Amino acid sequence: MQGQGHAQPVQRPPHDAVLVLLRLVFVAVGVFSAGFLAWVMMLRLAVVTRKSVDYGLLVAVAAADVLSLVLLGSEPGDDVHTPGGYLGITLLFGALLATVVYYLVADVRHFQRRREAYAAQTYGYAHPASPYTTGTSPLGTRPPHTPPPIPQQPSAHPPIPAPPQRPAPARIEQVRAELDELSDYLRKHDGHHESGR
User: Fold this and answer.
1) Distance CA 42, CA 58 (A)
2) Which candidate, 146, 15, 76, places its Cα nearest to that of 84?
């Protein structure tokens, strides 16, 4: 049997200081290795986001690093003075720059979405509509749809009884009872106050 089931609870995202420290460490690994370990940033991003795009970019960055190693390794001598060597350096630093920018932007966006999802789950905010759901919210945050009243015409048929209403949750009943008590108290209080004039 298939059904909607329950949405997985969103885990609390790490503290901002931890995220900044992790970003700093992973960017430093890529930069201080002169771009040869730029794939480490993409590995972390792919593992954290679990998106196939990030795994594909991880493979692309690793391939660019290997290609630049091959091009730089084929240079005769210690100095770079051939077009292949210049292409290897350009590829290495270009991949490093692109990887750092993409890593930081994607990581910040990912954890911002997680933070918003966690806040919505924790505090009961309305969830943004997803194109993959049928419109029901797991937290029941949407109000029930009530059609506008239709004017009734007298008919010869006896009225059809309304379908039985769902029992209200206990909290709503408790609030309703407290409001009734408050109304009674205010009526009594206003009645005594007016008679004293």
Assistant:
1) 5
2) 76
List all residues 6 or more positions away from 81 whose beta carbon is below 8 Å from its beta carbon: 75
What mean pLDDT is predicted for residues 92-102? 96
**Over 60: is that where the pLDDT of 48 sits?**
yes
| Distance, CA of 36 to chain centre | 32
Residue 140 clears pLDDT 50, i.e. is over it: no
Burial pattern 145-184, b for ≥16 Cβ within 10 A else e, equals eeeeeeeeeeeeeeeeeeeeeeeeeeeeeeeeeeeeeeee
Integer Cα distance of 140 and 50 in angstroms = 28
- Indicate the length of the chain as a whole number: 197
Interior angle at CA 45, CA 41 and CA 51, nearest 5: 145
Q: Which of 133, 75, 91, 98 is nearest to 27 (CA)?
A: 98
What long-range pairs does 133-141 form, CB within 8 A, spacing at least 24?
A: 133/4, 134/4, 136/4, 138/6, 138/7
What pLDDT does 165 receive? Answer: 63
* DSSP conformation letters of 44-91: HHHHHH--HHHHHHHHHHHHHHHHHHHHHHTSSSSS--SHHHHHHHHH
